[in-house]
Amino acid sequence: MAEPHLAGGRPPDVLLAQVHAAIESGRALCIRGSGSKDWYGEPPAGDLLDTRSHAGIIDYDPSELVITVRCGTPLAELESALQASGQMLACEPPHFGAGATVGGCIAAGLSGPRRASAGSVRDFLLGAKLINGRGQHLAFGGQVIKNVAGYDVSRLLAGSLGILGVLTEVSLKVVPRPVAETTLRFDGVSKADALTRLNQWGGLPLPVSASAWHSGTLCLRLSGARAAVRTARASLGGDAVDADTAVAFWRGLREQTDPFFGQAGALWRLSVPSNSASVTLPAAGPTHGPNDGPNDGPNDGPTGGSTDGSTDGPTAGETEVLIEWGGAQRWLKTDLPADSVRAAALAAGGHATLFRPAAGSTRQAPCFARLDPVIAGIHRRLKAEFDPANLFNPGRLYADL
Amino acid sequence: MDISTDHATSPSTARLIGRLLALVPADSVLYTDEAQRPYECDGLTMFRALPLATVLPSTEAELIAVVKLCREFNVPIVPRGAGTGLSGGATPHAQGVLLSTAKMNRILQVDVQARTARVQPGVRNLAISEATAKHGLYYAPDPSSQIACSIGGNVAENSGGVHCLKYGLTVHNVLRVRAVTIEGEVVEFGSAALDSPGLDLLAVLIGSEGMLAITTEVTVKLIPKPHLARCIMASFGEVGVAADAVASLIAAGIIPAGLEMMDQQATRMVEPFAKAGYDVDAAAILLCEADGTREEVEEEIAQMSEVLRAAGATGLRVSTSEAERLRFWAGRKNAFPAAGRVSPDYYCMDGTIPKKRLGEMLIAIQQMETKYDLKCPNVFHAGDGNLHPLILFDANDPASLASAEAFGVEILELCVKLGGTVTGEHGVGIEKINQMCVQFPADEREQFFGVKRAFDPPGLLNPEKCIPTLHRCAEHGRMHVHGGALAHPELERF
């Protein structure tokens, strides 16, 4: 087993000095690792604070299932240290760029194909250190799996897009890599059928670790003990996909290099209950043929639209759908107005993120769905408590935060 | 209206009670000492107090009305679930209202296809799994008190259980919490989807010990019941060897469904009571469970057995029936009641340490047994390093009581020193509030108060729990210097 190089304890002096200077000058900071996710959220603003000088693995003992790492460490370096010990980050986070850092991964809070079965970035965050807007370097949580001392501030930082402070160090729970893995492919599966199957399988003790449906093809990844994968494969049917092809396919989904993401239109991420059959979009954005069943396509719009499976719907066209996470994450490529997409997601019990604007265009709407007023009030007060002078990534999560 | 309370007769209290009686049915407001006696403490009986009134709303609307009234009177609210908590999180506030959610105990909806259940906060943990078993589903977190504890309390404490190494804590198994703020506003944290826009407030709410908002509805994730589970009981000649075996299992890439350790004092205490079939001659035993399909369990049991043997196990017994497996666990889950049988009183600790320090901790506890002249059997959630030493003492003997408390403090502070935490799953409540001063410096504690203010600006929800003030920590520091004097002599002990 390869021993990772341990960087040892060292305070984030450079970062602290920069924060203190910002407090002094009152000039906002744009916290940034490699910039691989500059496009995510509202536009970055402020003087650059580059976290990459604060890098290195601090502590990693595989039998503890915990790794502690500085936030400027490349995500790839962290992953290869884990791989060398037969472990991994279960949330399978996307990199979106070769230099992606651990801090960026936590701050963006984005999880990959394994999320529905294994959990999200925040689920594996055990402890975090951050520099707050008073220039204090604070430690929350710790390096143990069970810890309920004080409020769980660490997990609050996952997905916070840096608005509460500068992350300097995190401890993450890690898991053993599965012994066996197989990807199965099912062709000629309608969307409705895919959602039904995915939700049924979710209720059975099967080792499903990822799923994806697009354009009639359903892919299912099984991971776990040899016997579990073998038995599941036998009971599910489908065609086994060659291992290298499968690895490339799931990576393509995670990193959004899959051809689906290259199509025209803005990229929307819909997070909805896994069994929402119909995310009802207005008729302006047709998707599916008549027999496609419940859909993310045209319905109830101003021009009429159709209900699931009826024959008078518009023909396939402008909205493309890719389903992941057993039905709970749906990607849309569409030119529909933001309000329509958001209303549809809300009606289905979820929310919609304008993940990336259409190629060559700027954001036509806020990145994230509007907050409930009470929730928004808590956000404003939290921001003021962590960052009273509004120094950190102002406006990055919401324009007014 | 004539309202006679025994301990609080101020006109404003009488007015408060009068107004409460107008909001909820008369049998849902308790205000005499006698009626409130059952609510004067939770599972941590060392701290007791009588609140101004105890209110048991039956609906969210009643609960909102009560909260608004308390806000109007500027009276603290202490939320209470089933009252099984072990850290005094639901210890009443003498100038406040105790708000029990015990009557809000309906399962509102089970969505079999989406594998979720929407329940009221007073629903018992085990009742969710019982109600969903016919669909082949269950709710994973299983604290030892699961037959009695409520899901609202689980949310407040971020409860774990013996299977959380593989299946996670409450925070990993709750999708949405509907709650009422101190201003009486209804707010939903999380959603029926896997995430929500904005900051992850749900993650902060879970485990916040009723200090940020009051839960009125919880949507939990249900997971498929494994076809089969089998449990290995492994015997070891030395506790240190057993601790190393735990590390060997994890290093071999195995995440057991449950991985528990008991030392010989614990097995000998439990065995006559639970008849679990434990090897009482072993210095320590490990319970190590595999679950899944039949083939998967066979494969994993074989692999675990091999690792345990190589790690020095002197004997292995694999459960051959579901009844035997449940007996193995019944012994473990009944460790606390068994302690109550062999000793007039016991004090259950709840620290977590990195697993590699387990052996060191056990030796230190043995030395403390001599130092304080008290017995301390040990049960551990070994897979995640969460310790439950049970200090046996006699509360009628003041010296024994003082020793037990000092013993507990020394264990918790050693947990922090070894890189761990003063509470793995029982919460800070009022019990470990002084040890929070040891674990968190002043700046961190002030940031915690900032979180509290963001959710509860007037600071009326379960005040004085969980996060110690600067003043309190200064007091605690001084007591350390003077050595051993009991904190807060005004409070009843044990």
Kindly report the average pLDDT value of chain B. 92
Give the structural class of chain B: alpha+beta
Strand fraction of chain B equals: 15-25%
Please give the count of helices of chain A: 10
Class computed from helices, strands and strand pairing of chain A = alpha+beta
Largest interface pair: A-B, 86 and 95 residues
Number of strands of chain B: 18
Strand content of chain A: 15-25%
Shape of chain A: globular
Q: Which strands sit side by side, in order, in the main sheet of chain B?
A: 15-12-14-13-17-18-16
The Cα radius of gyration of chain B reads: 23 Å
Shape of chain B: globular
Kindly state the percentage of residues in helix of chain B: 25-40%
Q: How many E-type strands of chain A? A: 17
Radius of gyration of chain A: 22 Å
Question: What features would you describe in this structure?
Answer:
Chain A has ten helices and 17 strands. Chain A is of the alpha+beta class and 401 residues long. Chain B starts with 10 loop residues before the first helix and ends in a 12-residue tail after the last helix. Chain B is α+β, with helices and mostly antiparallel strands. Chain B is built from 18 helices and 18 strands. Chain B is 38% helix and 18% strand. Mean pLDDT of chain B is 92; it is low at 1-5 and 480-494. In chain B, strand 8 and strand 9 (186-190) form a beta hairpin. In chain B, the strands form four sheets. A seven-stranded antiparallel β-sheet of chain B has the order 15-12-14-13-17-18-16, with helices on both faces. Chain B has a five-stranded antiparallel β-sheet with strand order 5-6-10-8-9. Chain B has a four-stranded mixed β-sheet with strand order 1-2-4-3, with helices on one face. At the A-B interface, strand 7, helix 5, strand 9, helix 6 and helix 7 of A face strand 9, helix 8, helix 9, helix 11 and helix 17 of B.
